[in-house]
Write a structure and sequence with these properties.
eight-stranded parallel β-barrel; TIM Barrel; 2 domains; Lyase, Ornithine Decarboxylase, Chain A, domain 1; nine-stranded mixed beta sheet; binds ligand LLP
């Protein structure tokens, strides 16, 4: 059981988050429940900011965890934001984020989303296709202001991660091929409705080596040089996010390594760096608390059935992701057995761990660690399950930042068929 920022186990075997025993959180807010350490988020953010100091700006990837309190805590620290929808734009604005620090990524931006973002005065659209560039140009032509753009290029690099979260290979749906970028930049530079701000890439997520990121930066640097020769200057290079975290025993690079790797190939170009970390800021700060409902032996399997399901935390079911699962209070009156931790959902993939050495009894609460990123953000109501609450711990204080959904929330906006 490894320690991580914001969490510790005391001599009595009890797991704490900051100055609060996690047992108190489970008692007060019930289970399943997401809990985050404010300190852990701030430490990770500050480490990135320090690594980037004087070289550029951070745009937190909202998709990792877009809960308002978390966005507002980052906005208060001067964060920029990477958004991928009109909904995320609205969240950032509601949380007090500065529109002039927002970049807008994503392959399918709708007319409505582009209009709203232009009106809000965002910093840059990261454009993912020729068709999107044309659409943005047309919308900007109807308004008084030109649209700020960067092309998201696809550097065709294998990021060595799970195929579902690899985005920088030629066959992926993301970005614009390097050899098409130049002509599009020529077009954009000549348009009165577009201003060329920079270039962007994002090659994948949960990266455990910086080598592919360095290579992407090298390929991008070559493009920037060519464009500079043609008289098209780039103000910034957006290097995306992607830094991995330690879920079990991975050894991810730190923000310092990440920035050093991408900054080196770009250092003589006079460009500002934008970085879009998501997971690396919030993952380790979060835990999902879940209660053991039943123990069950089935065909040689030692099952621990918990009250959280894949609707609450999807990563194991979707990516076969492994996580540390620990009891809130260690007990020595039960044998440690190799167990499978499963949820209540009617899917065989609703499984949090295949091999987990645990001493547990029904009623015990477990912490699924490192679930602050792509956890609550990807939760659903599948199987008629209200979404779990989220709690932010700040020293000895625990703030409910999102209440548990009710049964009424499950049916909000629906109507029964009247009169057949
Ligand atoms: N920028 C862009 C354009 C992105 O598409 C992403 C993530 C990020 C930044 C942030 O990447 P990060 O620093 O968090 O790796 N649901 C998956 C992850 C999907 C990531 C999608 N894009 C998971 O749970 O592993």
């Amino acid at each position: 059981m490894s320690a991580s920022i914001g969490y510790r186990r005391d001599d009595e075997g009890e797991l704490w988050i900051e100055s609060v025993p996690l047992r108190d959180i489970a008692q007060r807010f019930g289970t399943p429940c997401y809990v985050y350490s404010r300190h852990a988020i701030e430490v990770r953010w500050d480490a990135y900011r320090e690594a980037l100091r004087g070289r550029g700006s951070l745009c937190y990837a909202v998709k990792a965890n877009g809960t308002l309190a978390i966005l507002s805590l980052l906005a208060q620290r001067g964060a920029g934001f990477d958004i991928v929808s009109g909904g995320e734009l609205a969240r950032v604005l509601r949380a007090g984020g500065d529109p002039a620090r927002i970049v807008f990524s994503g392959v399918g931006k709708t007319v409505k989303e582009i209009r709203r973002a232009l009106l809000a005065g965002i910093r840059c659209f990261n454009v993912e296709s020729a068709a999107e560039l044309e659409r943005i140009e047309g919308i900007a032509a109807e308004s008084a202001n030109p649209a700020p753009i960067a092309l998201r290029i696809n550097p065709d690099i294998d990021p060595q991660t799970h195929p579902y979260i690899a985005t920088g290979l030629a066959q992926s749906k993301f970005g614009i091929a390097l050899d098409e970028a130049e002509a599009l930049y020529q077009h954009a530079a000549a348009s009165p409705h577009l201003t060329v701000e920079g270039v962007a890439f994002h090659i994948g997520s949960q990266l455990l080596s910086v080598a592919p990121l360095r290579e992407a930066a090298e390929r991008t640097a070559a493009l920037v040089r060519t464009l500079h020769e043609r008289g098209i200057t780039m103000g910034h290079v957006d290097v995306g996010g992607g830094l991995g975290v330690r879920y079990v025993d991975e050894e991810p690079p730190d923000p310092q390594n990440h920035i050093a790797a991408v900054a080196a190939p770009l250092s003589d170009l006079g460009v500002e760096l934008l970085v879009e970390p998501g997971r690396a800021i919030v993952a380790e700060a979060g835990a999902l608390l879940t209660r053991v409902e039943y123990l069950k032996q089935s065909a040689g399997r030692d099952l621990v059935i918990v009250d959280a399901g894949m609707n609450d935390y999807l990563r194991p079911a979707l990516y076969d992701a492994a996580h540390r699962i620990e009891p809130l209070i260690t007990r020595d009156d039960e044998p440690i057995r190799d167990r499978e931790v499963v949820g209540p959902i009617c899917e065989s993939s609703d499984l949090f761990a295949r091999h987990c050495p645990l001493a547990v009894a029904p009623g015990d609460v477990l912490a699924i660690r490192c679930t602050g990123a792509y956890g609550a953000a990807m939760a659903s109501q599948y199987n008629g399950r209200p979404r779990a609450p989220e709690v932010l711990v700040d020293g000895a204080q625990a703030h409910l930042i999102r209440r548990r959904e009710t049964i009424d929330d499950l049916m909000r906006g629906e109507s029964v068929l009247v009169g057949g």
